[in-house]
User: Fold this.
Amino acid sequence: MSDWKPIIGLEVHAELLTRSKMFSPCPVVDSVEAEPNTAVDPVSLGLPGTLPVINERAVEFGLMVALALNCHIPRFNQFARKNYFYPDLPKGYQISQYDRPLAVNGYLDVEVTPEDGEPYLKRVRIRRAHLEEDTGKLTHMNGDSLVDYNRSGVPLLEIVTEPDIHSADEAEAYARALRAILQYLGVNNGDMSKGVLRIEPNISVMHRDDTDYRTRTEVKNLNSIRSLYRSIQYEINRQIALWESGEGVKQATLGWDEARQRIVVQRYKERADEYRYFPEPDLPVLEITPEWVERVRAQLPELPDAKRRRLMEVFGLSAYDARVLVMDQAVAQFYEAAVAAGANPKSAANWLVGSLFSLMNREGVEREAIAAIRIQPAQFAALVKLVDGGTLNRGTAAVVLEEMWQTGADPAQIVAEKGLAQVSDADAVAAAVAGVLAANEAMVRDYLAGKEKLFGALMGQCMAALKGKGNPQVVSEVLRRQLEARRGG
Assistant:
């Protein structure tokens, strides 16, 4: 692997959250939930005699993304016909943009945190961002293909990077950062499971002796960042093995088989000139004036980097916690709602990034789905306040959090029903500690003889005697006091 360097560029296809389609007033619907072929019109069905009209809101959404990605916005851009013939494209071509896209030459700075190395900042250059219409959706069953045209004509923004990405870690960091920006802008909800955000990596490898790029492949329509990471890792290893065996890599379109965790070849890749692009004759050249750009800029909300800085400055969070919290808009909203409900900002961040994320990982719940879990932000805040107020220690709080996860019950109710309130009463703690010391005379003698590491074992037995509900600070103080009393005796 040290002799090889991965070369990766990403194409991200983001459906835009407009009310109507890219070139017609036909409404946009949830293409997963809606009944098939109920949101169609003559334009999206490609019927003869129909004419497209540009959706102004889709253009503004594209401009918002372009500004957030530090892109240059040319004054003039133009739509083009991209010709190919599939059942999901009834008119035989897609209206897209080719040599005159909406935006060019941008960049996105992302923090990469590899599993086996130190975090570092990575700049990924954006080659272009262009508008187009989405295709219909095919469902293959028993050798037949069913077509749903609800998605046909939905506004789509394609964002293409330069081949600046050199690992699956960098690809993941870029994808997460870009998805967060799209969510914060309100132009895409980031739900990859429904196909509203699709990622396609172009992958090749270079040997250390190479002076030019080798053949690349493209993995199509990945519907999760986890699949993006795994498919890139797999394809890098596959290509290296092919080159080292002398077989070589053929340019191809690939798919990712999630069930078998492997790459599958779908077809050999077409060249761009096979699409026979030419200017769309039914649409005018679009002029983006500086005044229009500035009106759009004024609409930009607080973006992830700005929110991260604010959380650090206002709440005193660490750079790591702030970055993790803003990575998914739903997580940031959950956190800020918990703080608004009275949770200490630092404590809430610690419990969210640590304990709650661990539960979500264990249950296979993606972070962007945090709004769907049973625990509400106000309940989470109540748990944090019980810990900070001394009612619960961390151990019993973890038990309460688990119960909240399973049932959605309020933490105070769980504490009352299960008798989990922390024991801080000095007399109760002293009695429990005295009992532990009496039952472990040999351990006490060894501790007093200099084996101070035994304090932790004695502390653990004291906490067990208090059924995990002891206040650790009080237990520790009483234990030390009783041990020193024995030393003096």
The CA atoms of residues 264 and 290 lie 46 Å apart. The chain has a mean pLDDT of 90. The longest strand covers residues 120-133. The radius of gyration is 29 Å.
